[in-house]
Specification:
By secondary structure, the protein is α/β, with parallel strands linked by helices. Among the domains are: 40 residues, Monooxygenase (Up-down Bundle), CATH 1.20.1280; 113 residues, no CATH class. The strands form two sheets. A twelve-stranded parallel beta sheet has the order 1-2-3-4-5-6-7-8-9-10-11-12, with no helix packed on it. Strands 13-15-14 form a three-stranded antiparallel beta sheet, with no helix packed on it. This is F-box/LRR-repeat protein 15-like leucin rich repeat domain-containing protein. InterPro entries: FBXL15_LRR (IPR057207), Leu-rich_rpt (IPR001611), Leu-rich_rpt_Cys-con_subtyp (IPR006553). It holds the Pfam family DUF7885.
Length: 411
């Protein structure tokens, strides 16, 4: 059999028939990553096309390899050079690597450098100078970074929408000021554990970044009532022990049409008043965590069956709220018809025995766990007030308590 293809149409070579753009169209229609990788094994031309279309790259490499990858994958938009936190002995990416990244991946939109302990302000400044299209930067737990490097990013990357600086303890309010002036499109700031941040910095951020949707300032011990923001859809203030009812009630009022998720575990000044304000006023709220807020009682859930109460709440965590009883749990289950997860771990007054004694009944879809069974709530016609809102509850009274007496239930 001759190796030379026949001159007829049936013998035409595919590389002679299809243009590069047509081959890119074929590549775009391949689904699994394995199929896309196999595409590049056909020949060098197909490998070149596949490489030019790659948008996501994860690697651990030094400067020489990074240069080769930049040449081979010029279209990369998302680069992940993060290190595993378990490799505490290994610095990961260093400043020389960031020099190559800034020079070779000029169209980069997303860069992850989590746990890269070797990078300093010197390398981060290069990113700010040469990556103007950057929209997301994760430098969580890069503990050598300070305001100097990240202020350069704020100045040079004005399209930044997400900045994750969790665990960067040298960061101060000066960075938040730079973000408020330059990164007006910022939507997500993760600053958990940045213990130098204060109310003043958070307020300045609020004044400049009006598109914020998610803010994590948990374990920022210097943030109190003035720093509880009024612009986030997702707010994490867990461990901010100076936050009180005053600010949470103001938040519930100002964000009644936007707040969707709130985590304020270990905010020890929070009382029933805050939780009631959130439940009644924030109609879009789907998740609340008030774990370890030991002033929360059943009073937070009273009168929830009253006319006009509506809630889209799906996740409620009241673990270690030691004053909550079965009566409060009953009110939650009966009133929050969309509820999917209810965490009452370490609530000593919510046990299997107390639920049985109170005759607490769950919806018919209840699937008890931990080797015991409770009588499910019999099917019945819903009340007129609830007839157009059938329960889709898949409530989980979470397990993990100190003994089987505590009730884990999946509804």
């Amino acid at each position: 059999m001759s190796a030379t293809p026949s001159s007829g149409a049936g013998g035409a070579l595919i590389n002679d028939v299809l243009t590069d753009d047509e081959l890119r169209g074929v590549l775009a229609r391949l689904g699994p990553e394995a199929e896309r990788d196999a595409f590049g094994l056909v020949c060098r031309r197909w490998l070149r096309i596949q490489s030019s279309e790659r948008r996501l790259l994860r690697a651990r490499a030094g400067p020489a390899m990074l240069r080769r990858m930049a040449a081979r994958f010029p279209g990369v938009l998302d680069l992940d050079l993060s290190q595993s936190p378990s490799r505490s002995f290994y610095p990961g990416v260093i400043d020389d690597d960031l020099d190559v990244v800034a020079g070779g991946f000029r169209n980069l939109r997303v860069l992850a450098l989590q746990n890269c302990k070797g990078i300093t302000d010197v390398g981060i400044v290069k990113l700010g100078d040469r990556l103007p299209s950057l929209q997301s930067l994760d430098v969580s737990h890069c503990r050598k970074l300070s305001d100097r490097g990240l202020k350069a990013v704020a100045l040079g990357c004005q399209n930044l929408r997400q900045l994750l600086i969790t665990g960067c303890r040298l960061i101060t309010d000066n960075l938040l000021t730079a973000l408020s002036k330059n990164c007006l499109h910022l939507e997500d700031l993760g600053a958990a554990g940045c213990s130098c941040l204060t109310d003043a910095g958070i307020s300045v951020l609020a004044d400049g970044c009006h598109n914020m949707k998610a803010l994590d300032i948990s374990k920022c011990n210097k943030v109190g009532d003035p720093g509880v923001c009024k612009f986030a859809e997702t707010l994490v203030i867990g461990g901010c022990r100076d936050v009180s009812d005053e600010s949470v009630e103001a938040l519930a009022l100002s964000c009644c049409n936007s707040l969707k998720s709130l985590r304020m575990d270990w905010c020890l000044k929070i009382t029933d008043s805050s939780l009631r304000s959130l439940l009644w006023k924030c109609k879009l709220l789907v998740a609340i965590d008030v774990g370890c807020c030991d002033q929360i009682t059943d009073a937070a859930f009273q009168d929830m069956e009253a006319s006009g109460f509506q809630s889209e709440l799906r996740f409620l965590k009241i673990s270690s709220c030691v004053r909550v009883t079965v009566a409060g749990v009953r009110n939650v289950i009966e009133s929050c018809r969309a509820l999917e997860h209810l965490d009452v771990r370490s609530c000593p007054q919510v046990t299997r025995q107390s639920c049985e004694q109170a005759g607490l009944q769950f919806p018919g879809s209840c699937k008890p766990a931990a080797g015991f069974r409770l009588s499910p709530k019999p099917a019945s016609t819903p009340s007129p007030a609830r007839s157009n809102r059938p329960s889709r509850a898949q409530v989980q009274l979470a397990a993990g308590l100190r003994s089987q007496e505590h009730l884990p239930v999946n509804l």
